[in-house]
């Protein structure tokens, strides 16, 4: 029995929108497809399953790539058999299809025999596979464009949100898969075992991107793809400095491309801080009449060169919306393959949806969820700063200034969405007199209050105020 091509979809007549516009006549057109190459692929897989089904899997071919439903069903069944370790040959294949009630859906025995005897040239397999993929891309563009047109005609209130959705779908087509396509359990297990083997072998790459702070890296196993790391603190605790120290390590010491979104400081201010912090030169010295010596100038020039050569991208748009941030991040991921994102800071961002207009808590929740979703979509870690409320100041005794997760301002959604939450504070900031302030100078602590994939605890740090720089461990005098 021959397999029939399904009836092509009809496209409705489009009315004129303005005087002088030309109406589109009724047109019935088949979606782009390549039935010959589809038959060629299936025939090769039926004749030499070990060779060609494996190639199809490597090339990430899916049932959705096939235009004809019978071809799509058969390909999915072949993949199941192959991954289950079953032998693929015509007689047993027909019997298995009968047992599953799928024989009629693939066109019956005659259609299978026709495919088996199609006898394509083996050398054309990858060429035909690309034909099938290209037609699938064209169908995806048409489908997503039609959906976008229909939604645009409905005149949605959330125009920015619609634009964000359309852009995400188009970028997903470019990358060859839908952004919300979930991995199979088999793929997830394989990834887990691969990481386990890498950890056993002592490979540092399996532990995520290091931050440059040894104790934080030990407790977190590094910043991993899809994770959101919130660093929260009261104003003037140095959270921007800590973020930029991490950025410096990743972009300049590790040589990985990354992007910083700064809602508070300009790109000039961030780069100035980055260069002089890396050069270990305090800018405040200049206001006191200090003249840099040759060593100072050499360090500054070297730091400036290293910063120039790094693949660090800074966007200092004030009050950036979550939709705009996601659009820019997607483009930079596509164009520069950025490996991480840092954002300063969450409460200065905007969400322009109607639901967020009258509720700051709702707005922060939408931004937090959007950032977590972006980390998963782009498969990279995101470090985001957040402001704490006045809770630390209201405490007394030894608890004065010590932050808690409940101090996160305006929304518990941040705590819920984050994979890790680090609470930064410096005891000297809350000193009651000059003597205590001097004794506590340089002491800082990052409380890892939440860690989905590891331990929590206190991480001692040293803050060098004149350099706006954090370093691992407690101040030297305390460690002695």
List the helices and strands and how they pair.
Layout: E1 10-11, E2 27-28, H1 35-47, H2 49-58, H3 69-83, H4 90-100, H5 108-116, H6 125-153, H7 159-174, H8 185-200, H9 214-220, E3 228-233, H10 239-253, E4 258-262, H11 267-278, H12 284-287, H13 294-309, E5 312-315, H14 322-336, E6 340-344, H15 354-357, H16 360-378, E7 382-387, H17 391-394, H18 413-417, E8 420-425, H19 434-440, E9 443-451, E10 457-464, E11 469-472, H20 476-479
Parallel strand pairs: 3-7, 3-8, 4-5, 4-6, 6-7
Antiparallel strand pairs: 1-2, 8-9, 9-10, 10-11
Helix pairs in contact: 1-2, 1-3, 1-6, 6-7, 7-14, 10-11, 11-13, 14-16
Describe this structure as you would to a colleague.
- Helix content is 48%, strand content 12%.
- The chain has helices at residues 35-47, 49-58, 69-83, 90-100, 108-116, 125-153, 159-174, 185-200, 214-220, 239-253, 267-278, 284-287, 294-309, 322-336, 354-357, 360-378, 391-394, 413-417, 434-440, 476-479, and strands spanning 10-11, 27-28, 228-233, 258-262, 312-315, 340-344, 382-387, 420-425, 443-451, 457-464, 469-472.
- The strands form 2 sheets. The protein has a 9-stranded mixed sheet with strand order 5-4-6-7-3-8-9-10-11, with helices on both faces. It has a two-stranded antiparallel ribbon with strand order 1-2.
- The protein contains 20 helices and 11 strands.
- Residues 1-26 and 177-181 have low confidence and may be disordered.
- It folds into 3 domains: 28-155, DNAb Helicase, Chain A, CATH 1.10.860; 157-207, no CATH class; 208-420, P-loop containing nucleotide triphosphate hydrolases (Rossmann fold, 3-Layer(aba) Sandwich), CATH 3.40.50.300.
- The chain is an alpha/beta fold and 480 residues long.
- α1 (35-47) packs across α2 (49-58).
- It starts with 9 loop residues before the first strand and ends with a helix.
- The relative contact order is 0.09.
